[in-house]
Design a protein that fits this description.
By secondary structure, this protein is of the alpha+beta class. It has 2 domains: 234 residues, 3-Layer(aba) Sandwich (Rossmann fold), CATH 3.40.50; 114 residues, OB fold (Dihydrolipoamide Acetyltransferase, E2P). Helix content is 25%, strand content 35%. The strands form 4 sheets. A 6-stranded mixed beta sheet has the order 6-7-8-3-9-10, sandwiched between helices. Strands 13-12-11-14-19 form a 5-stranded antiparallel beta sheet, with no helix packed on it. A 4-stranded antiparallel beta sheet has the order 2-1-4-5, covered by helices on one side. The protein is globular. It starts with a strand and ends with a strand.
Length: 356
């Protein structure tokens, strides 16, 4: 990774006897886009608020560009923040909202007007069309763009985004998250994006910090987080996962018994003993209903459900007491499987995640 720009070290936050963030460590490079991903109550927004200065860490330090900002007030940090609820000033026009931080900083009117026009151009809401409007005259997506422009106008050192898309409908969310990423890359601003939506985090992040119980369970690139989860929680939370319960039948040869069937998982049972219970996880896209040349493992079962979704057919196969989901492409010359008929799934043993 490039030289560290934001360093969060050994941060802990407690409210009374309740600890909501503990042992949180993360270094972020200049210009990097990092998402905090996790369920409600995992501590992601609390970490963001400590970086912004709205909460003070119980212990630990936060350093930006070599300067310790742990105890500084929010207005001393030069950090831009976009809130979930937009927080636009209803009595100010679009242009006045965007100019607010510049006015507080004492920027001249001429420079402020030029910067506001520039920012409205970047977010594709031109000054001549939108500058004189008020927030109530804008759609939710437009309001969020204005909130983003207001946060970016003073050229902050960091941009913090606290679930900024959660109030928008699905189609607007997709287009706006792509715009946010494009603007972030254009400006090269170091950004933290808080979300509970795994698709958002996977699609726009340089790295993701998956949080659970106030800690970072795993930090890595989207590809790494999805394909090499470091814990059972990460594996289940990020993406769709099929889990099969098995028992080690011959540790020396990597053999595992699943629903009275043998699988060979050589190289994946390090430290396991005969009789140990294991959870074996497989992503749906790693499984096929037809044996492929690159697949070295099979399991037999019964078709439990078939759902026609147009371009794909979602199939659920019962294997012992577990059900495995997979998608097959819809082709006009191949009829879909029938519920109750025998089925054999195939996959590569290399794609199996062993969750102890």
């Amino acid at each position: 990774m490039a030289e560290t720009y934001l360093s969060i070290q050994n941060v802990k936050k407690s409210f009374g006897q309740t600890t909501v963030v503990q042992d949180f460590n993360l270094d972020i490079a200049k210009g990097e886009f990092v998402s905090f991903l996790g369920p409600s109550g995992c501590g992601k927004t609390t970490v963001l608020r400590m970086v912004a200065g709205f909460e003070e860490p119980t212990s630990g330090s936060i350093v930006v560009s070599g300067k310790d900002i742990t105890r500084l007030k929010p207005n001393q940090r030069n950090i831009g923040m976009v809130f979930q609820a937009y927080a636009l000033f209803p009595n100010l026009t679009v242009a006045q909202n965007v100019a607010f931080g510049l006015k507080v900083a004492g920027v001249s009117k001429a420079d402020s007007d030029a910067r506001v026009k520039e920012m409205l151009g970047i977010i594709k809401l031109p000054m001549d069309e939108f500058g004189a409007r008020y927030p109530y005259q804008l759609s939710g997506g437009q309001q969020q763009r204005i909130a983003l422009a207001r946060a970016l106008a003073p050229s902050p050192k960091l941009l913090l985004l606290d679930e900024p898309l959660s109030a928008l409908d699905a189609k607007v969310r997709v287009s706006l998250r792509e715009e946010i990423r494009s603007i972030q890359q254009k400006l090269g601003i170091t950004t933290i994006f808080v979300t509970h939506d795994q698709e958002e985090a996977l699609s726009i992040s340089d790295r993701i910090a998956v949080m659970y119980g106030g800690r970072a369970e795993q930090v890595g690139a989207p590809f790494e987080i999805y394909n090499r989860p470091a814990s059972k929680f990460v594996a289940n939370f990020v993406g769709t996962l099929n889990v099969l319960e098995g028992t080690v039948s011959d540790a020396s040869n990597g053999a595992v018994r699943v629903a009275a069937q043998e699988l060979s998982l050589k190289g994946k049972l390090n430290g396991s003993k005969n009789g140990d219970a294991l959870s074996l996880a497989l992503r749906p896209e790693a499984i096929s209903l037809r044996r492929r040349p690159d697949h070295d493992a099979t399991l037999s079962g019964t078709i439990a459900d078939v759902h026609f979704l147009g371009s794909v057919i979602r199939v659920r196969v019962g294997i012992g007491g577990s059900v495995v989901s997979l998608d097959t492409f819809n082709t006009s010359h191949t009829p879909p499987p029938v519920v109750g008929q025998p089925a054999e799934i195939s996959f590569s043993s290399g794609d199996v995640l062993v969750l102890h």
